[in-house]
Amino acid sequence: MMTAVSTSTAFWRQIDRRMGIDAPAMVDGAVPASRSFDRGPTDRGVGPVPLRLLPDTTEVLPDDSLSIGGVDVTSVAEAVGTPVFIYDEEHLRSRCREARRAFGDGVAFASKSFLCRAMARLAHHEGMMIDVASGGELYVALRSGVPAERLVLHGSNKSTKELALALSIGIGRIVVDSFDEIERLNRLVARGGSTPRPRALVRVNPGVDANTNASIATGREDSKFGFSLASGAAAEAVDLLSSGHSPVDLVGLHTHIGSQIFELSAFSDTIDLLAPLVMKTQLAELCVGGGLGVAYTGDQEAPVSITEWAAVVRDACRRAGIADSVRITAEPGRAITATAAITCYRIGAIKTVPLSSVVRVRTYVSVDGGMSDNPRPALYDSCYEAFLPRTVSALRPFPVTVAGKHCESGDLLVKSGHLPQDVVVGDLLATPVTGAYGYAMASNYNKLLRPPVVFVGDGRYRSVTRRETVEDLLGLDVDEPVLPHCLP
Ligand SMILES: Cc1ncc(COP(=O)(O)O)c(C=O)c1O
Fold this sequence. Notes:
Layout: H1 9-19, E1 59-60, E2 66-68, E3 71-72, H2 73-80, E4 84-88, H3 89-103, E5 108-110, H4 117-125, E6 129-132, H5 135-143, E7 151-153, H6 160-169, E8 173-176, H7 179-190, E9 199-205, E10 227-228, H8 233-242, E11 249-254, H9 265-281, E12 285-287, H10 306-319, E13 327-329, H11 334-337, E14 341-354, E15 361-367, H12 376-380, E16 398-403, E17 412-419, E18 428-432, E19 453-457, E20 460-465, H13 470-475
Parallel strand pairs: 4-19, 5-6, 6-7, 7-8, 8-9, 9-10, 9-11, 11-12, 12-13, 15-16
Antiparallel strand pairs: 1-2, 2-3, 4-14, 14-15, 14-18, 16-17, 19-20
The protein binds pyridoxal-5'-phosphate (PLP).
Pyridoxal-5'-phosphate (PLP) binds at residues 110, 112-113, 131, 154, 256, 259, 289-292, 331-335, 436.
């Protein structure tokens, strides 16, 4: 027998209150009593979380708890709720300044790694241009107050609408990616869509294997991005765009060979391949894209700094015979944002399951976020560390798998993590190096609410994006009248 569902206002008010609507800020800080369970084998060799994975202004307080930007992380998580992205503002600023010093004017922040208005303003104020890869990113950057001439538009399939918008606002640079795009630009410029003429770079695919995950390698011959160097398509695009009928002022070449790259020789190899075209065309700019790798776990090598990366790129340009007058730029994303943030979650369940293998059991530590705030482990098999902000220098002998709360077995944030032995339900758990491609790729799968972003610095914190609400979940639904079927 079905029970009638009450739809009275009082009923919905009760539901709303439970969902936190109209209620005072929800603090998930209550620590329920921990059930006793078999903690399985421990691994005595696993030390504290390496501090080099944490943001620049990280401090360990006298009670062994975590402070970033002069702010006690546990208090922020209690005030704002979990999950929450916590960014060290000084870390972001210092990487932007470093990029600007190392490459000079024209270096752009790859906003796809992390974009909100506060981030766009910060990168702009620190002297970077902003690289946008869609009309949406373009809109957010513009609405943040970034002048159009400081924006660079990318994309392998820019729509007519996106191009028209870029032309109408006088965008700084367009990185042209296909012959179809050139035709589209021709049509738009002929219609008088742009004054002055847009400045453009040709995206060249050099055919380089950057030794990274296949999904984020973009410079291989078989790629949807850019014009192939080997086939002559790149030279043809340059000819078209520098002819008298060109819709744009061609100012340079652009390439981006992939992300999370540690072997700098991939950049030097790329420059060697591109140099003949740069010299033949005598174009004034060469952008080497982004891609500098960062360490996500303690066992990964310490990454090269942006300064060292720029030095290797400049040196390779000089050795390949590219004139010093050519403006060499780049578009770092991850190297600026990744290590600047941690994500804090609340542990809601700890479950030990028997295994048939030699490792006798696996302990799942379940948190209140998951693949919706960090899809990288599911997408790229990316590895992360986990630790407890209440006890930063504790040894972590307890092998765990940190699981999210989605209805997917693959929703694992840290497959092979380690935590202190005394972890309990209700503890705050943090994953470091989540500043890049986490919030940017977040979804509300399973209708989870996208977490807020908090910036910390100078002993203060401020939310720069709020948490999604259940009202937001309904915000896109429409009750349109049924339209009559269109007959020919
Ligand atoms: C064209 C372009 N530039 C820059 C970047 C930023 O790369 P990363 O975040 O690895 O530095 C990307 C990333 O996909 C890209 O596609």
